[in-house]
Design goal:
- By secondary structure, the protein is α+β, with helices and mostly antiparallel strands.
- About 45% of the residues lie in helices and about 20% in strands.
- The chain is built from seven helices and eight strands; from the N terminus they run H-H-H-E-E-H-E-E-E-H-H-E-E-E-H.
- A six-stranded antiparallel β-sheet has the order 5-4-3-8-7-6, sandwiched between helices. A two-stranded antiparallel sheet has the order 1-2.
- Helix 4 crosses helix 7 and helix 5 crosses helix 6.
- The longest helix has 29 residues.
- The radius of gyration is 22 Å and the shape is elongated.
- The two termini are about 35 Å apart.
């Protein structure tokens, strides 16, 4: 039985959800302004009063998700970097054993690739353990996100753009990307995006080889592996 005048559990949950939403809006707004914003500027941008902004900033500053500069402006803090690094670490932990099994099954080199702005960055490379000849490349390799199966898959996992390549549109339709010779002459590859609930795609997995084979068979295996990664990440 609820006490008259006392908020119900549902009302409490709704209030907390609204506070969380507003806090996330503060973080996103500061992300769009790398030079920082003052409390007044935040209040104006978010169409709310200064007192409300101060209440939202308090716990964000305590957790170092936001820091206050000497000039009074607020910017995103190092706590966000720490959180992001933990997410990436968990992603790699889950993905590597799956990619190793995939490399062995496909007899092809597999990789985890992350998006960094307009570039794709290789975060992990797994080589097949039962082949005499295969492609090898280093972790940390960067290339434009618009090329190679891994980059195309990253773009295909996001909303369509009017200027995107036809291969991106096709990859979005079938669930995996195919490329030939875009980073290495004679090499072919397939890639699939890793779609996590509530997040934009910023990771993909891929496989690359140099012989003649059906890329669609490999593509379907990549899609299965990507779904398993998503499932294990919860």
């Amino acid at each position: 039985m609820n006490t008259p005048g006392k908020p119900t559990p549902t009302e409490h949950a709704g209030a907390h959800s609204l506070t969380l939403e507003r806090g996330l809006r503060v973080l996103k707004t500061l992300g769009d302004h790398p030079d920082g914003l003052s409390v007044s500027q935040l209040a104006q941008t978010l169409d709310t009063h200064r007192a409300g902004i101060y209440r939202l900033l308090g716990p964000l500053v305590e957790q170092r998700l936001v820091i206050r500069l000497e000039n009074g402006r607020y910017v995103l803090g190092p706590g966000l970097i720490e959180l992001a690094s933990r997410v990436r670490s968990r992603l790699r932990e889950v993905t590597v054993p799956i990619l190793q099994r995939l490399a062995d099954a496909l007899r092809a080199t597999t990789a985890l690739t992350l998006r960094d702005g307009d570039e794709a960055v290789v975060a992990a490379v797994l080589q097949p353990r039962s082949t005499d000849l295969h492609i090898a490349y280093r972790t940390g390799l960067r290339h434009p996100v618009t090329v190679a199966a891994s980059g195309i898959a990253l773009l295909a996992g996001r909303a369509p753009r009017p200027d995107e390549r036809d291969v991106v549109t096709q990859a979005r339709k079938v669930g995996y990307a195919i490329s030939h010779g875009e980073l290495l002459v004679g090499a072919s590859g397939v890639g699939a995006p890793i779609q996590l609930p509530g997040r934009e795609v910023d990771a993909s997995i891929s496989a690359v080889w140099v012989d003649d084979r059906d890329p669609h068979l490999a593509g379907r295996e990549l899609v299965k592996a990507a779904r398993q990664i998503t499932y294990e990440l919860g």
